[in-house]
Amino acid sequence: MNIPFFDYSDLFARHRNELTDIFQSVSSCGAFIMQDDLVQFENKLAKYTGVNYALGVANATDAMQLLLKAGGIGIGDEVIFCSHTMVATASAIAFTGATPVPVEAGSDHLIDVEKIELAITPNTKAIMPTQLNGRVANMDEILRISDKYNLQVYEDSAQALGAKYKGQSAGSFGMGGCISFYPAKVLGCFGDGGAVLTNNKSIYNKIKLMRDHGRGEDGDVTIWGYNSRLDNLQAAILNYFFDNYEGIVQRRREIATLYFDSLSVLDKVVLPPAVNSDPDHFDIFQNYEIEAFMRDELKKYLADKGVGTLIQWGGKAVHEFRDLGFTQTLSFTEKIMRSSLMLPLNMTITDDEVEYICNCIADFYND
Length: 367
Ligand SMILES: *Cc1c(COP(=O)(O)O)cnc(C)c1O
Hints:
CATH topology of the largest domain: Aspartate Aminotransferase, domain 2
Helix content: 25-40%
Number of helices: 12
Number of strands: 13
Bound molecules: pyridoxal-5'-phosphate
CATH class of the largest domain: Alpha Beta
Shape: globular
Strand content: 5-15%
Largest sheet: 7 strands, mixed
Order of helices and strands: HHHEHEHEEHEEEEEHHHEEEHHEH
């Protein structure tokens, strides 16, 4: 068998006619920047996630940076984040002039809420959890701490469109959140794309200007901005896939259940929480990230069997990029990073392929 981790061209082949129609209709109108498809998509996105406002931007990294800027984060401030995340979380903080302060991940790979208070100093302004792998962190606890110390909350919800905690969507808890439409994300476009989600009217008004050079509808410029727009062709493609988003999420949860049911008998792997195992969480499984004994050997074994796997962020937590100035030691997170492996989970994989992958993993440990 040959099961790539992700197969973009297969995805295109399955939707070739519809996507070709979209390209023709958008191009023949010449509707490329700030057009109706974008407005429609933003409205659907806000409705789906239950926030007041959604704004398309160039990518999720920009979304976070714009959010932090609009919320007043800057030089001298510290922002706490979980080190098991993409470097983008920290770079968005750093690009505002603030200092990113990494803390440990817990056993579910999300921010360890028990470690947050230890990292708070008089300069701390905000907490920015990453809603990793399509699961929302313990937001009750994060909001309790932010209330106690008068901190803002932002979410790196790039991986978590439609994931919920106690019925509430990722990106809707604090000042705002981001969504990424990078091709491998659950809702991916054909290039780069992102969105800001917020309930805060002042943040919305600012970012609406900031993403387009600070220009208002009359062309007057009242705020420093830059160019971070979600183009209309990508928005049209996103509208198309978004119409079946519930089905996409349902399928991902099915695949996660197949993995869980087969692999939970093995004592050499640690699995993500099972679907519906905790009523507080509705997970969308952006990734199926397991911890595996002899991870590197397993990865190679699976590759020899035709199974593509991926090590998230290349196997390093953000604080391990010492050239960026980090000095922390976060031993639990480092341990997770050394053993984590992502198994194929995408819109095109079949049940038989998942079964084959699980059999290969069982063979690896039983031989
Ligand atoms: C994908 C991702 C990002 C970056 O998203 P872009 O749209 O590529 O900027 C940030 N944080 C996390 C957790 C991600 O998975």
